[in-house]
């Protein structure tokens, strides 16, 4: 019969469970029994579960259970074997009867179960009578661990005055025992310290408020929580944790002034913005709940203000406007303080504000004089004679002694030249006539100084307006350039005019235009007033002749509407122009200029022709001089070119058919026989191949160089005509050697070019040229 066995040590018992389905069902139906019965299965194992306690401390092996085969005849022929985890050292078996013992201490927290195998064999044949069966021994737990608070100590915060039952925080303890069996890991929480303010839920560890608490009374509480396993039964383990609970602030307290009445003083000469004093209200709350604002009530004079110092929460009373001891000596104001942030939940307990009375006394001081007005505006007509009255300023000492004052004008010497003031009574007069067209307003500053205390000074601004008087006659706004054509017809408009007046007019300027008395007999032009401060100049006849009269001077009378009215005579110059009906301004200006110079057109043409001839003559002279300079420079350039030898052949390519011809150094031009400073007596004629024989060691070459050197030394003003040609050697190691013809000291006949054939196909054509040349020479 194939069967597996399951030996299970459950919680505080060690139970042996077979793996067969029949055995499983049978054993399941009897799990609630005392396990003293022997359960049998036909031709199978027999399991007899017994109890064993975890962490058995006895040195004697403890009986766990028994394995028994139904084939066991109790005749001693069967032998039981045990293998697997812990077999032999932790678990042993009696091979004769199958009883299993544990001989070492077991710890469920280290190893909760063991897997073993059992087998029954015949002692005589050593053959198994039952197949090997595997089973599991589970270690049953005992209460051997204490609870632990792993997250302690705890910190928590809860708002003050929170209602009863408000959750504060939760504490949690852990137990290392098996929570699935018994009560070893079942914890129960209780409050050791913290009543009657807090409570804890026994099963969850949630701490709750047990009553309302005021932070201002006490802001921190230390609570001790205990956790017990075994549901608090006798013999249970326990642990404790501390919870520090802080009460956070809420705005449940109104501000309160420290005093019901404050006394303060302020000097009457204190400037606006001066700090008069401070008030302070206390608030038991903290942070923003203690923030407050101060206000002033009951101050009908509006002389004081109050601001809040957000750092110190003080109310600072400031002077809002100047106070006067002589006018009012005492002030009584009401200051109010209100919380800035109010919790609506506590409004029913009363307003979150407070009030106090502040009495302020004004202290007397020696004040400077006071003018009757903040500023003065005066008027005077322009042109008024020196010493005319402008106005009067008045100041007095506000103090009880009423000290006399002295007046003066400041801020600008030019104002003193225009105005003066009586230092005793403040009368302002002019020192010279005023012109409104120069300045229509004058601003002066008048000071009043106490005679007994010169340090007490007051100032006031005086604005003086110069009233306009019609003292300027109207005039043309600009110079009019007027032309009339010779062929102009009668009644033709030739010019529109207007007028300006420097005076002011309350009703607006009105100008009237007409011919002056001296021009009324002039029948050539008429003036027509347009009734809009403009007028038109019209011709009174047809046809004008420049030869008879080139210009006309028309006097025009302009009248304004001032009181009294003023007139002026303005002359309009009219120039006759050589035109038909349409005036060409440029041409007319030109004609007027010529007429003023007394020149005719023919004379002007003659003058221009003379100027043109002189200009052409001057340019011709300049051109001739430039040509001469250019010719001289060309000769020098020729001399320069006499000694320039072009040698731009890199040394014998495929196109090389000529070598350097040194005869170029001995040409007629080089010798310059026409120059007196030349001493060359012979000429050198050399053909192409002959030049190859001329070298530095040649007498002819040395003679040529000597002549050039002597010529340069004897004529220091001439540029150097000697020519320097450098032909560098190709370098050591070159198979070709030097290609310079100047460096050759032998002729083609002495030169062998057979080596050119060894240079490769690139020099094939060159080798052919020199080889054939040598053959022809030979």
Q: How much strand content do the residues show? A: 25-35%
Distance from first to last alpha carbon: 131 Å
Largest sheet, strands/sense/barrel = 6 strands, antiparallel
C-alpha Rg (nearest Å): 68 Å
**Remind me, CATH topology of the domain at 256-363?**
Immunoglobulin-like
- Total helical segments: 8
Q: In terms of structural class, how would the helical and strand content be classed?
A: alpha+beta
Shape: flat
Total DSSP E strands: 40
Overall residue-averaged pLDDT value: 77
Low-confidence segments, given as residue ranges, are 1-43, 48-52, 664-694, 725-734
CATH architecture tag of the domain at 256-363: Sandwich
**Full CATH superfamily name of the domain at 256-363:** Cadherins
Main location: membrane
Pfam families: CADH_Y-type_LIR, Cadherin
Protein name: Cadherin 19
Keywords: Calcium, Cell adhesion, Cell membrane, Cleavage on pair of basic residues, Glycoprotein, Membrane, Metal-binding, Repeat, Signal, Transmembrane, Transmembrane helix
Key features?
alpha+beta, Immunoglobulin-like, four-stranded mixed sheet, 8 helices, 14% helix, disordered N terminus
Can I get a quick summary?
With 778 residues, this protein is an alpha+beta fold. It contains eight helices and 40 strands.
Q: What does this entry look like structurally?
A:
With 778 residues, the chain is of the alpha+beta class. Among the domains are: 50-140, Cadherins (Immunoglobulin-like); 147-248, Immunoglobulin-like; 256-363, Sandwich (Immunoglobulin-like); 370-467, Immunoglobulin-like; 481-577, Immunoglobulin-like, CATH 2.60.40. The protein is 14% helix and 32% strand. The protein is built from 8 helices and 40 strands. A 6-stranded antiparallel sheet has the order 1-2-3-4-7-6, with helices on one face. The chain has a 4-stranded mixed sheet with strand order 10-16-15-12, with no helix packed on it. Strands 17-19-22-21 form a 4-stranded antiparallel sheet, with no helix packed on it. It is found in: Cell membrane. One of its GO terms (biological process) is calcium-dependent cell-cell adhesion via plasma membrane cell adhesion molecules.
């Amino acid at each position: 019969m194939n069967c597996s066995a399951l030996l299970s040590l459950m919680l505080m018992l060690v139970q042996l469970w077979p793996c067969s389905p029949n055995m499983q069902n049978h054993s399941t139906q009897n799990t609630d029994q005392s396990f003293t019965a022997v359960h049998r299965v036909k031709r199978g194992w027999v399991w007899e579960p017994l109890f064993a306690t975890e962490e058995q401390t006895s040195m004697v092996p403890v009986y766990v259970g028994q394995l028994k085969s139904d084939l066991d005849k109790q005749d001693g022929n069967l032998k039981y074997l045990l293998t697997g985890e812990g077999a032999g050292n932790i678990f042993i078996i009696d091979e004769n009867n199958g009883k299993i013992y544990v001989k070492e201490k077991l710890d469920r927290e280290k190893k909760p179960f063991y897997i073993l195998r059992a087998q029954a064999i015949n002692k005589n044949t050593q053959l198994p009578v039952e197949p090997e069966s595997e089973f599991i021994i589970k270690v049953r737990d005992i209460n051997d661990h204490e609870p632990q608070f792993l997250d302690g100590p705890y910190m928590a915060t809860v708002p003050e005055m929170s209602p009863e039952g408000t959750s504060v925080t939760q504490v949690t303890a852990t137990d290392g025992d098996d929570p699935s069996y018994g009560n070893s890991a079942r914890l129960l929480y209780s409050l050791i310290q913290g009543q009657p303010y807090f409570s804890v839920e026994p099963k969850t560890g949630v701490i709750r408020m047990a009553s309302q608490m005021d932070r201002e009374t006490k802001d921190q509480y230390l609570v001790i929580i205990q956790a017990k396993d075994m549901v608090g039964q006798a013999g249970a383990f326990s642990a404790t944790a501390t919870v520090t609970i802080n009460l956070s602030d809420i705005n449940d307290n109104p501000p309160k002034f420290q005093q019901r009445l404050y006394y303060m003083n302020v000097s009457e000469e204190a400037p606006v913005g001066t700090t008069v004093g401070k008030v302070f209200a206390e608030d038991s709350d903290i942070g923003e709940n203690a923030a407050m604002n101060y206000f002033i009530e009951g101050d009908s004079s509006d002389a004081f203000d109050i601001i809040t110092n957000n750092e110190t929460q003080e109310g600072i009373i400031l002077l809002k406007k100047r106070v006067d001891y002589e006018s009012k000596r005492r002030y009584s104001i009401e200051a109010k303080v209100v919380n800035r942030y109010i919790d609506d939940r506590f409004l029913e307990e009363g307003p979150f504000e407070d009030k106090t009375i502040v009495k302020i006394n004004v202290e007397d001081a020696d004040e400077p004089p006071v003018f009757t007005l903040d500023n003065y505006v005066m008027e005077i007509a322009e042109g008024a004679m020196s010493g005319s009255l402008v106005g009067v300023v008045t100041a007095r000492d506000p103090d009880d002694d009423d000290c006399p004052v002295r007046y003066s004008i400041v801020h600008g010497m030019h104002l003193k030249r225009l105005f003066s003031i009586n230092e005793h009574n403040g009368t302002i007069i002019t020192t010279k006539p005023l012109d409104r067209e120069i300045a229509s307003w004058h601003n002066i500053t008048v000071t009043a100084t106490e005679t007994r205390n010169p340090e007490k000074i007051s100032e006031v601004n005086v604005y003086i307006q110069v009233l306009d008087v019609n003292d300027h006659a109207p005039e043309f706004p600009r110079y009019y350039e007027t032309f009339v054509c010779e062929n102009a017809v009668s009644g033709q408009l030739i010019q529109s005019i207007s007028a300006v007046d420097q005076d002011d007019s309350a009703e607006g300027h009105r100008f009237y235009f007409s011919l002056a008395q001296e021009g009324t007999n002039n029948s050539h032009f008429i003036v027509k007033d347009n009734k809009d401060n403009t007028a038109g100049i019209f011709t009174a006849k047809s046809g004008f002749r420049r030869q008879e009269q080139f210009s006309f001077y028309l006097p025009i009378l302009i009248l304004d509407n001032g009181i009294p009215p003023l007139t002026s005579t303005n002359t309009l110059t009219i120039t006759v122009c050589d035109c038909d009906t349409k005036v060409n301004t440029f041409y007319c200006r030109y004609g007027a200029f010529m007429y003023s110079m007394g020149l005719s057109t023919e004379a002007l043409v003659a003058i221009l022709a003379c100027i043109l001839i002189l200009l052409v003559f001057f340019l011709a002279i300049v051109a001739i001089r430039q040509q001469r300079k250019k010719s001289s420079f060309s000769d020098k350039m020729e001399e320069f070119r006499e000694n320039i030898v072009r040698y731009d052949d890199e040394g014998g390519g495929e196109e090389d058919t000529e070598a350097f011809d040194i005869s170029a150094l001995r040409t007629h031009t080089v010798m310059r026989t026409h120059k007196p400073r030349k001493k060359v007596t012979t000429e050198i004629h050399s053909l192409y191949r002959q030049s190859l024989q001329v070298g530095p060691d040649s007498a002819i070459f040395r003679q040529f160089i000597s002549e050039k050197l002597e010529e340069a030394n004897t004529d220091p003003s001439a540029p150097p005509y000697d020519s320097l040609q450098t032909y560098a050697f190709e370098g050591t190691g070159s198979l070709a050697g030097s290609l310079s013809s100047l460096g050759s000291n032998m002729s083609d006949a002495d030169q062998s070019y057979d080596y050119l054939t060894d240079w490769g196909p690139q020099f094939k054509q060159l080798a052919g040229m020199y080889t054939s040349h040598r053959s022809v020479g030979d």
